Amino acid sequence: MTERVVYRPAEHLGDALTELGSRLHPLSYADLPAGTRERLDLAVLDLVGVALAGMRTPELTALVAAADPAPGPHPLLGTDRGVGAVDSAWFPAVAASWLELDEGNKHAVGHPAGHVVPAAVAAARAHPAPVTGERLLSAVAGGYELAARLGRAVRGDPRWHTHGHWGVLGAAWAAAHVRGGDLTACLGAVGAAGSLMRTTPWQAVLDGDVTRNLWMADAVPAALRAAQLAAAGLAPSPGAAYHGLSLVGEVDVASVAADPDRWLCGEGYLKRHSACSYTHPAIDLVLAVRGQLPDATSVQVRTGSLAAPLLGRDVPNRLAAMFSLPFAVATAWEHGEVTPAVMEPGSEAFARSRRRLDRVAVEVDGALDHWLPDRRVAEVRLGDGTTEIALAAPNPVGDSDHFPLGRDDVRDKLGSLVGAADADVLLAVMSGLAGCDDAASHLAALP
Fold it and tell me: Nearest 5 degrees, angle CA 18-CA 373-CA 109?
């Protein structure tokens, strides 16, 4: 009789990560399917562009001034400062989520690129030898894929926000890969990162607590430390990541290495609206119908449970407003856009949106969750007391499955945020990244 071997969940996760890592480690950016590579390129370009826009806000200007980072050889995006490798990536990572315009992935239910890309850039800048653009992007692709699969695997406790935990593991993979780590080192960095995650409460976001904008950025120092532990031979096994992840929620270990021919790093979404992505399908629908019923007196929204935390109407600052579905819908209804300009607290535009709040009703219908994660369905009804117009959408515009944004769309988006001239510089620099011999020097040309 053969004895049955029983594994602990951590060992199961270690096996799954090893299987996945064995596929990702030899990955070359150039070997990605063309469509995946195109979507990943746009995600990275978009992230850098919205980080530049965030760096130019008064809030980030004040934060940089207050922190007064030590001088160093690396340009700090959007400023005339030179700083150290970690600071050069940490501040832009904070800025990337400041305006709620950063790339995300519905399968991961979060933002892989915002964790992974800054960590990879910091690792390249900290490396003693030049890192090619191809190697940097290969590390980003692998780190994004690993992070997205872990995000998909974690059925999170609703008290946890999605920044600062599973994404740190992908960031650690990318940092170790940039350093030239072998498979063992990259997996060790992932295992170490499982104990370097942040506790990230949803309620802080809803309260408008801007410490939330640091959670994703803190993946940068955590990833670099995890990669250093691995390089020193001091990292745990990859299965150690289970202990941290299982605090966030239930972990579907079997899904981590499943569907090996699928690339989640090419299935993200790009944002058009300065608000949480859970509000975007409703915003899109309001924008589509508001002109057809200009005298409408009410808006009714039906949405799935992902948006259940976003029902608050007390919006003391920009962050709270961007995470209020009623306020985002009222803004779209009032202004025909949800941009940083009209989401500026204290402005007349903000006050006008607030005055429409009591005419926006939101119903959370768990039946719509049947379509998750492939579809984030929403329905909007606009009425004037005698006429009603209703529309439904399966996903926000900009999702890889629903009117994905192309290069020209991203260029237009970034132009509206940072100006046409800087948008053109962003496109030129990022387009040349894959072919450069020294990624750190190449990225120094960013605005």
Answer: 65
